[in-house]
Amino acid sequence: GAVGLTGAVDIDAGRTITFEGAVTSDGDRDLTLESDRDIVFNGAVGFGDDNELGDILIDVARNVLFEGTVEAASLTQTAYSGAGVTTLKDAITTTGDVDITARVISFSNSL
User: Fold this and answer.
1) What gap in Å lies between CA 22 and CA 20, rounded to an integer?
2) Distance from C-alpha of 76 to C-alpha of 43, rounded to nearest angstrom
3) How far is 111 from 109, CA to CA, in rounded Å?
4) CB-CB contact of 96 with 75 (8 Å)
5) Does the reported pTM lie above 0.90?
């Protein structure tokens, strides 16, 4: 289901992190993720009026997949492990930087 951030969130997992639905924020909340495996967003991230996330920081992940749109202050991926594929399938909108470190970056839409 959907996830609504009401504060900054920091998740460090030894397994895959999957968000099945939309991820929204009630006021530019930061999201920091680290996984020994993959990070998957199956829904939109920060989509809609006043639902944008703050800074999205991916410290490390094997593969990262954004299936839907992303609206955030910034999007940063600092490192990868293994295959290192980051896939952005829809539009990415930020008010700041997009800085992705990956072996392969795949865009299917606008940045």
Assistant:
1) 7
2) 19
3) 7
4) no
5) yes
Q: How far is CA 77 from the centre of its chain?
A: 9
Is 14 a residue whose pLDDT tops 80? yes
The answer for 82, left when phi > 0, alpha when psi is -120 to 50, beta otherwise, is: left
Residues 40-99: tens digit of each pLDDT: 999 999 988 899 999 999 999 999 999 999 999 999 999 999 889 999 999 999 999 999
Cβ 102 vs Cβ 83: under 8 Å: no
User: Tokens for 91?
Assistant: 């539009």
Instruction: Fill in the DSSP letter of residue 45.
Output: B
